[in-house]
């Protein structure tokens, strides 16, 4: 990745009474179980290295207990690390003084929370303006400036309501507006849509993707939901037991799962709606048959090829130039889950 | 040989018996010396510093006297209107406002107007003092477990120690009068304010506080923007409890020279005046019910709107 906005380097987090004394043991490779049994310390995060590109949505996925919520709280240092660095635009967040950190949180990174975490005694308008009032903007101006964002997330007309009067989905829109209103370049989303029911969640993902098209923020998105990760993620890091086990774009993860754990994860995915033509094509300058965009989905390819009664099609780029070729055989093959790791050694 | 052994055992037995039946206390003389020493030390302390301490409380005394005079001097119809107005503002209930006004009118009709005004002055100053000291103390306690572990036992002592016991040093220092009465009331009435402020702030939703942190709020912004507003229902319960307990202390305060509804009650006890005792006792109850209902309704209203008036 050429321009990593956020570089997480050798990050460790140990929970317990004396994490500093345990740190050398972790470096020597003492296992997580042994740390817990013999030293009564929990290894929360272990040697995390992630490069998060600018202006993209980077999803960190893992099941509960994998350390994903702990990890995102290191980016704005709501949790102190035991060891390691989080470097944002060349500055190490871990070395910041408390004033610098406050400034960083006010202007550079805002956050959306799983449980919304709105202020119950403030109106929707005042909640959306919260980040700005913390920055020192006076209340009236802050409400005015955040109004635009409330309207952008579809909450125009609800300004005078209190959070308790809104549904979960609407409350999270307020949470999103509050985070956007500060104009921070980095948006941290901690299971932001996990508490919502599936239809609303889908809506919210749509809103986020629409917003991202114009705003181009650097978004770190935590989720335990693979469908969600595949839908919104430009990059996905999969976390298990406090360690990154695979890092790649969605296609990569679907086609080349790093280990059995991830294979299990992706086995129930509708591959036809996730895998893109660009992943399957073989490079070619000329090809015949129906034409597909590189971003076309496998599902559509199969239908079209089947209807056109040809064995292969041409893949074209945005300008209509042929860049590759896709065969019916490859397409069908891709629908089947990969057996067991052919490429398993690529990752630890 | 064996006889000697038997004798020895009996001898020891008698000694041990005495040891176990009589507590091995310090000698009477030592005890008397100890008490005398403590008394003398405190007497010296109060002689040396009594005036300075009295001077320290003077502003409080002036304020109390000023408020009492103001209430007594204000024409009664104005007081009645103010009472009804405050009751309505607090509770938004006409029933409560009219009820309060009627209670006051009745109290006045039975000749207890002036005493009631004195009592209200005392309760108001005591409550203000308790809030002014108790709330910051509660906030400080909520911030640090160590502070909490020190203050909690002190509050326990304040609430359980017999009132007359702590009145003793106060009287020795300041003599009989309004200020010692005020201190006695506050010692008893402040603990719920401190406890409930502490509890309220500790119970503030951790997620909301984390959000405030994530947006870069400093301590002051967190305290006034999140912690106090969210703790307000509990803080209000504390103020309500403080008022109630202050009212309960009115009779005791009158024993050390505080004017008000307590004095007639005291006279009634000493002379077995049944009617006088009940009239003044019921007046205290009436005040208590009015204060309680109005402040509770106000507290509830804050909760319903979740602080709709708060723009801070």
Notes on the protein architecture:
The complex is a heterodimer of chains A (348) and B (312). Chain A folds into 2 domains: 4-266, P-loop containing nucleotide triphosphate hydrolases (Rossmann fold), CATH 3.40.50; 271-335, CBS domain Like, CATH 3.90.1280. The radius of gyration of chain A is 23 Å and the shape is globular. In chain A, α7 (139-152) packs across α8 and α14 (298-308) packs across α15. Chain A is built from 15 helices and 14 strands. Helix content of chain A is 39%, strand content 23%. Chain A is an alpha/beta fold and 348 residues long. Chain A starts with a strand and ends in a 13-residue tail after the last helix. In chain B, α2 (28-73) crosses α5, α5 packs antiparallel against α6 and α10 runs antiparallel to α13. Chain B is extended. Chain B is mostly helical and 312 residues long. Chain B is built from 13 helices and no strands. Chain B has a single domain (77-305), classed as Orthogonal Bundle (MetI-like fold). The longest helix of chain B has 46 residues, at 28-73. Chain B has helices spanning 2-21, 28-73, 76-91, 94-109, 113-143, 145-160, 163-174, 178-202, 206-214, 219-248, 250-255, 262-271, 274-305. In chain B, 86% of the residues lie in helices and 0% in strands. The interface between A and B is medium-sized, with 33 and 24 residues.
> How large, in whole angstroms, is the Cα Rg of chain A?
23 Å
Number of helices of chain B: 13
Question: What is the H/E string of chain A?
Answer: EHHEEHEEHEHHHHEHEHEEHHHEEHEEH
Q: What distance lies between the first and last C-alpha atoms of chain B, to the nearest angstrom? A: 94 Å
Main sheet summary of chain B: none
Largest sheet of chain A: 6 strands, mixed
Structural class by helix and strand composition of chain B: mainly alpha
Uncertain runs of chain A are: 343-348
């Amino acid at each position: 990745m050429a321009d990593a906005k956020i570089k997480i380097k050798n990050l460790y987090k140990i929970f317990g009474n004396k994490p500093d004394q345990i740190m050398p043991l972790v470096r020597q490779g003492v296992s997580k179980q042994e740390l817990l049994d013999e030293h009564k310390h929990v290894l929360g995060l272990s040697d995390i290295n992630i490069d998060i590109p600018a202006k993209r949505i980077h999803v960190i996925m893992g099941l509960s207990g994998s350390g994903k919520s702990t990890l995102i709280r290191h980016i704005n240092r709501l949790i102190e690390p035991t060891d390691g660095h989080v470097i944002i635009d060349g500055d190490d967040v871990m070395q910041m003084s408390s004033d610098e950190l406050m400034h960083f949180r006010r202007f550079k990174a805002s956050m959306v929370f799983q449980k919304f975490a709105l202020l119950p005694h403030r109106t929707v308008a005042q909640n959306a303006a919260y980040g700005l009032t913390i920055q020192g903007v006076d209340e009236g101006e802050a409400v005015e400036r955040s109004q635009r964002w409330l309207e952008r997330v579809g909450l125009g007309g609800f300004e005078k309501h209190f959070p308790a009067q809104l549904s979960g989905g609407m409350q999270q829109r307020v949470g999103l507006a509050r985070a956007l209103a500060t104009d921070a370049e980095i948006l941290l989303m901690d299971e932001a849509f996990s508490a919502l029911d599936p239809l609303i969640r889908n809506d919210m993902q749509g809103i986020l993707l629409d917003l991202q098209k114009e705003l181009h923020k650097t978004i770190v998105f935590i989720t335990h939901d693979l469908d969600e990760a595949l839908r919104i993620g430009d990059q996905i890091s999969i976390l298990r037991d406090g360690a990154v086990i695979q890092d790649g774009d969605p296609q990569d993860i679907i086609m080349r799962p790093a280990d059995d754990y991830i294979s299990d994860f992706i086995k129930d995915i509708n591959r036809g709606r996730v895998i893109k033509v660009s992943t399957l094509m073989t490079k070619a300058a000329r090809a015949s048959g129906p034409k597909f965009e590189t971003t076309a989905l496998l599902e559509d390819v199969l239908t079209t090829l089947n209807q056109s009664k040809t064995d292969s099609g041409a893949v074209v780029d945005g300008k209509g130039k042929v860049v590759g070729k896709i065969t019916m055989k490859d397409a069908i093959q891709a629908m089947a889950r990969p057996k067991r790791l052919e490429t398993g050694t690529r990752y630890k | 040989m064996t006889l000697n052994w038997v004798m020895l055992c009996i001898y020891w037995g008698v000694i041990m018996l005495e040891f176990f039946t009589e507590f091995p206390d310090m000698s009477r003389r030592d005890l008397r010396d100890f008490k005398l020493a403590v008394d003398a030390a405190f007497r010296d302390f109060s002689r040396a510093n009594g005036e300075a301490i009295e001077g320290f409380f003077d502003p409080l005394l002036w304020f109390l006297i000023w408020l009492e005079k103001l209430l007594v001097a204000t024409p009664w119809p104005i007081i009645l209107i103010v009472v009804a107005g405050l009751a309505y503002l607090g509770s938004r209930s006409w029933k409560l406002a009219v009820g309060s006004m009627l209670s006051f009118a009745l109290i006045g009709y039975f000749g207890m107007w002036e005493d009631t005004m004195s009592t209200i002055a005392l309760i108001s100053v005591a409550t203000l003092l308790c809030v002014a000291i108790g709330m910051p103390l509660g906030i400080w306690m909520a911030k640090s477990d160590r502070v909490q572990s020190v203050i909690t036992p002190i509050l326990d002592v304040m609430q359980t120690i017999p009132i007359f016991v702590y009145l003793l040093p106060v009287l020795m220092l300041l003599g009989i009068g309004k200020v010692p009465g005020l201190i006695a009331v506050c010692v008893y009435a402040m603990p719920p304010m401190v406890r409930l402020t502490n509890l309220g702030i500790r119970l503030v939703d951790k997620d909301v506080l984390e959000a405030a942190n994530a947006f870069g709020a400093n301590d002051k912004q967190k305290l006034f923007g999140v912690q106090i507003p969210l703790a307000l229902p509990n803080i209000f319960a504390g103020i309500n409890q403080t008022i109630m307990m202050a009212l309960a202390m009115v009779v005791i305060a009158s024993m050390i020279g505080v004017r008000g509804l307590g004095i007639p009650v005291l006279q009634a006890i000493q002379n077995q005046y049944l009617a006088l005792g009940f009239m003044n006792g019921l007046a205290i109850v009436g005040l208590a019910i009015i204060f309680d209902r109005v402040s509770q309704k106000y507290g509830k209203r804050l909760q319903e709107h979740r602080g709709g008036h708060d723009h801070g």
